[in-house]
Amino acid sequence: xxxxxxxxxxxxxxxxxxxxxxxxxxxxxxxxxxxxxxxxxxxxxxxxxxxxxxxxxxxxxxxxxxxxxxxxxxxxxxxxxxxxxxxxxxxxxxxxxxxxxxxxxxxxxxxxxxxxxxxxxxxxxxxxxxxxxxxxxxxxxxxxxxxxxxxxxxxxxxxxxxxxxxxxxxxxxxxxxxxxxxxxxxxxxxxxxxxxxxxxxxxxxxxxxxxxxxxxxxxxxxxxxxxxxxxxxxxxxxxxx
Length: 241
Prior knowledge:
Largest sheet: none
Number of strands: 0
CATH class of the largest domain: Mainly Alpha
Helix content: 40-55%
Number of domains: 2
CATH architecture of the largest domain: Orthogonal Bundle
CATH topology of the largest domain: Endonuclease III, domain 1
Distance between the termini: 60 Å
Radius of gyration: 26 Å
Number of helices: 11
CATH superfamily of the largest domain: Hypothetical protein, domain 2
Structural class: mainly alpha
């Protein structure tokens, strides 16, 4: 009669159904909170993109307002192809306020949603003429009240045409990168803006949008992020490097 193996005696190899031991999972080091990382993130992006600026070509506040309205659901590059002919035909609010909608539609058609955009552009110009003496207003409330102008558009105009840091422009790149960097856990643009305004000095509210947009286009690309080349990889909880 065969006795039982002694306690502590070596056993045979596990059968085919046995589970093999898994290696211990190495957790990445816990990063500091957003309040501690934000200044370093901002500083590194400033070094990486020293010439960061608004990508929409414009000569004044009127041109920037028009270009920003056209940029909804459209690339800045496409807008920049369209606006030279548009500004030649309508060099200021007075001319645009008198425009025929079909004529404006023809000029902005390639930007998408062209009927609604043409309607808003003409209505905006008329409101500027009747309510502001032909001058683009310089406050958030007055800009926001213009047809076709939301908070994002108003922030673009105030920050880039007038040098007024009223808020942070939140577009798709800013939304995505702010989430990846855990600068916010919100998905609503208004709440994201509020979070960024608490993390970034007011003097940099306009600039931080340009920096995040440039980084999102050049390195932190949505479908193929280049984490190995990213200057923020050690500060980013989402880094794959």
